[in-house]
Design a protein that fits this description.
CATH architecture of one domain: Beta Barrel
Strand order of the largest sheet: 1-5-2-4-3-6
Strand content: 15-25%
Number of helices: 2
Largest sheet: 6 strands, mixed, barrel
Distance between the termini: 66 Å
Shape: elongated
Order of helices and strands: HEEEEEHE
Radius of gyration: 40 Å
Helix content: 10-25%
CATH superfamily of one domain: RlpA-like domain
Structural class: alpha/beta
CATH class of one domain: Mainly Beta
CATH topology of one domain: Barwin-like endoglucanases
Length: about 160
């Protein structure tokens, strides 16, 4: 680590001040008459420790309820044939019946895709494909996608059920 000129000068001044201050302190201790140590009586007092827990202070409002030991937790119903994810579109694979490409839905299943943002739904037939982009759960043909959202909104959060 190389020090700049400013840092070296600063360290030198600090060292000189330290040496001078130590010389003054040591000179006053060793100079003059010898001092004899005197006995000094010291006493220590300890404060009493109060280990009791104070009562809670209620500043206003109704008194709180005593905890019953458990909280009620609501779990959503789980449907094994339903999943949430992201949907996008493509112009590939146009057929007379609407198809959708998905890696989470079995091939040949009838799929209902619901846009979570606006509640619109569309039905399509699942076709397995490796064309689904990474991070997407389902890819719809653009003509099918426009029934649930605008193309500029892609990707959209959807609920997929089959």
């Amino acid at each position: 680590m190389a020090l700049s000129v400013y840092e070296r000068r600063r360290a030198t001044v600090l060292a000189v001040i330290t040496v001078v201050a130590l010389g003054i302190v040591w000179g006053t201790r060793s100079g003059g008459t010898a001092t004899t140590p005197e006995a000094v009586a010291t006493t220590t007092t300890t404060m009493p420790v109060d280990e009791s827990i104070p009562d809670p202070v209620i500043l206003g409002g109704p008194t709180p309820l005593a905890p019953s030991g458990s909280a009620a937790i609501a779990y959503p119903a789980v449907n094994p044939n339903e999943e949430t994810g992201l949907a996008t579109f493509s112009n590939l694979g146009y057929t007379q019946t609407p198809v959708c490409y998905s890696t989470v839905v079995p091939a040949g299943a009838s799929v209902t895709v619901t846009n979570v943002n606006n509640g619109r739904t569309v039905k399509c037939t699942s076709v397995y494909s490796l064309l689904v982009p990474a991070g997407m759960d389902i890819m719809l043909h653009s003509s099918v996608f426009t029934k649930i959202a605008n193309l500029i909104d892609a990707p959209i959060p959807v609920k997929i059920s089959w």
